[in-house]
Design brief:
It comes from Ornithinicoccus hortensis. It catalyses: (2R)-2-phosphoglycerate = (2R)-3-phosphoglycerate. The chain is of the alpha/beta class. The protein folds into two domains: 3-82 and 328-472 and 483-545, 3-Layer(aba) Sandwich (Alkaline Phosphatase, subunit A), CATH 3.40.720; 87-324, 2,3-Bisphosphoglycerate-independent phosphoglycerate mutase, substrate-binding domain, CATH 3.40.1450.10. Helix content is 33%, strand content 17%. It has helices spanning 3-7, 30-33, 37-45, 69-78, 85-94, 102-110, 132-144, 166-181, 208-220, 229-239, 281-288, 333-339, 350-359, 393-406, 418-423, 428-451, 522-530; strands at 12-17, 47-51, 117-123, 149-156, 187-195, 224-226, 251-253, 269-272, 305-310, 322-324, 344-349, 373-378, 411-416, 455-460, 496-502, 508-510, 543-545. The strands form three sheets. It has an eight-stranded mixed sheet with strand order 6-7-5-4-3-8-9-10, with helices on both faces. Helix 4 (69-78) packs parallel to helix 13, helix 7 runs parallel beside helix 8 and helix 14 packs parallel to helix 16. The termini are close together. Bound molecules: 2-phosphoglyceric acid and manganese (II) ion (2 copies). 2-phosphoglyceric acid binds next to loops.
């Protein structure tokens, strides 16, 4: 029997466990600490490998860059390593392309009499949504290009960098602004800000109220007033000891008369300097969409020249003006499957919905073939996720199980968000529960895949929950002044698991000798399991028929 015959007809079911990497197994490894009978069992039952999900293996600039959902899902779906995020913008910066196109219009607009240039984005060197170097370069070029009034609206991270460091980023930014403006009559200031999870950086329309807070802070200048960004941070930390940077409230910087120092006005130029789209698109829409906009009540919105760092949504062409053009990823795995006429299902809760559709499909939102593809978006809870660590793992799997029972689908993919979203809270106990809920859900799904004689593939897009503590350079856990662990809220650079368990009777074995096996090998692996031709430029499959 050929591979294709063995595979013909039976469903292949992929589960992406978001943020569940392979850790050291120590007491800060929530995956190891969790009771995971399903994952332990799958490991015995089928092919198990540990593969790369970070750094240059997913198209980032260096191997010290942790993975993230965007690049992880892009890479999985593309079957190749595509230059990504910071790397893509870095390339445009290196070859100077970034200063040639829309940037010229931006500075021309900002040089009109009385106009201002607003730079809005995440103050971080996590290189997930934004890059500190890019912000500095924008400032330097704005100076060289004669922008006299400039306002920075800075969001605090605490998610991709060590938590409770926002004051350092603010100090560094104030120092940079002082250095660039010293001895000139440039009028450059920090004008507003807030923690990214409560200000501006909502995603997948989970909570437009977050964007509204940002709109009040950055655009209207009506958020909670403070004399400076540093004063805002200090005050909010006094009010809520231990508060995470991501949750610091939205604020507006005001002058001695209580007037906002930099609201956005007609005729200004606005740049969002985040390069990643999922959490930049909503504010973008608030700026560029006309009367049809329904996210929240914008009041009288200013007429500005708006530019994003890059394209945030390929299908809606948002934003229409951007500093750097994005990668166009063609021939992604679901396009290949759609061309073969096979039916596909994608299911995820809202927090990761775009990951399983837009990012998976090489930055396009719509199905390739609406007749054969079904997308399911399960609304996420609107809470801090450590309060509901099971998230929607059960509901997500319910949809996949139902589709398997119904029959007719050949490739069914889903994302279980808990390991990542709860891992980001830095709450170890809740993260253990999140991983257990993921395991439980996969257990239920595995039984249904078995009943259907299908093939189950389980992997993760990057690490997070398997390493929950900040570490020093030697890898030793760091503690606070009282000796308590410094909980880590960020992703990791760890390897991720890959399980392949086929209940159809076809045996598979690991392909030896694949160079640096990683997420980029998943697409060929899936096509091989499906018995479909692998495009020539894909990285190779990690499994082959045994015997
Ligand atoms: O929450 C997010 O935006 C990122 C971390 O910045 O996580 P993920 O890449 O898993 O979506
Ligand atoms: Mn993720
Ligand atoms: Mn994450």
């Amino acid at each position: 029997m050929t591979n294709a015959e063995a595979a013909s007809g039976r469903p292949v079911v992929l589960v992406v466990m978001d943020g569940v990497g392979v850790g050291t197994g120590d007491e800060y490894d929530a995956v190891h600490t969790a009771r995971t009978p399903t994952l332990d069992g799958l490991r015995e039952e089928g092919v198990y490998r540990e593969i790369f999900g970070s750094g240059t293996h997913v198209g980032l600039s260096s191997d010290s860059d942790m993975g993230n959902s965007e690049v992880g899902h892009n890479t999985m779906g593309a079957g190749r390593i595509i230059p990504q995020g910071a790397k893509r913008v870095d390339d445009a910066v290196t070859n100077g392309e970034i200063w040639e196109g829309a940037w010229r219009d931006v500075v021309a607009q900002a040089s009109q009499d009385g106009a201002q240039l607003h730079l809005i984005g995440l103050l971080s060197d996590g290189n997930v949504h934004s890059s500190w170097e890019h912000l500095v370069l924008l400032l330097e070029h704005a100076k060289a290009d004669g922008v006299s009034r400039l306002r920075v609206h800075g969001l605090f991270d605490g998610r991709d960098v060590e938590d409770r460091t926002a004051h350092r980023y603010v100090a560094d930014l104030e120092a940079k602004l002082a250095e660039l403006t010293e001895g000139t009559d440039l009028d450059w200031r920090i004008a507003s800000g807030g923690g990214r999870m409560v200000t501006t950086m909502d995603r997948y329309e989970a909570n437009w109220g977050v964007v509204e807070q940002g709109w009040k802070a950055h655009v209207q200048g009506t958020a909670r007033p403070f004399g400076s960004a540093d004063e805002a941070i200090t005050t909010m930390r006094e009010e809520t000891p231990g508060i995470s940077d991501q949750l610091l409230g939205a604020f507006t910087v005001v002058d001695g008369d209580g007037e906002a120092v930099g609201p956005v006005r007609d005729g200004d130029a606005v740049v969002i300097f985040n390069f990643r789209g999922d959490r930049a698109i909503e504010l973008t829409r608030a700026f560029v969409e006309g009367d049809g906009f329904t996210g929240f009540d914008r009041g009288d919105w200013p007429d500005v020249l708006f530019a994003g760092m890059t394209l945030y949504d390929g299908d809606t062409n948002m934003p229409p003006v951007r500093l750097v053009q994005p990668p166009l990823i063609e021939d992604t795995v679901s396009e290949v499957i759609a061309r073969a006429g096979l039916r596909q299902l994608a299911a995820s809760e809202t927090q990761k919905y775009g990951h399983m559709t837009y990012f998976w499909n090489g930055n396009r939102s719509d199905p390739f073939d609406p007749a054969t593809e079904t997308y399911i978006d399960i609304p996420s809870d609107q809470v801090e996720f450590d309060q509901r660590p099971w998230m929607k793992s059960a509901e997500t799997v319910d949809y996949v199980i139902e589709a398997l029972q119904e029959g007719g689908y050949t490739f069914l993919r889903s994302n279980l968000a808990g390991g990542d979203m709860v891992g980001h809270t830095g709450n170890f106990e809740s993260t253990v529960i999140a991983v257990e809920a993921v395991d439980l859900a996969i257990g239920r799904l595995a039984r249904q895949v078995k009943a259907a004689g299908g093939c189950l593939v389980v992997t993760a897009d990057h690490g997070n929950s398997e390493d929950m503590v900040e570490r020093d350079k030697s890898g030793a856990p760091r503690t606070d002044d009282d000796g308590r662990p410094l909980w880590k809220t960020a992703h990791s650079t760890n390897l991720v698991p890959l399980h392949v368990v086929d209940y159809s009777g076809q045996d598979w074995r690991a392909v030896e000798g694949v160079e640096a096996p990683g997420l980029s090998n998943l697409a060929a692996t899936l096509l091989t399991l499906l018995g479909l031709q692998v495009p020539d430029d894909y990285r190779p499959s990690l499994v082959e028929p045994a015997g």
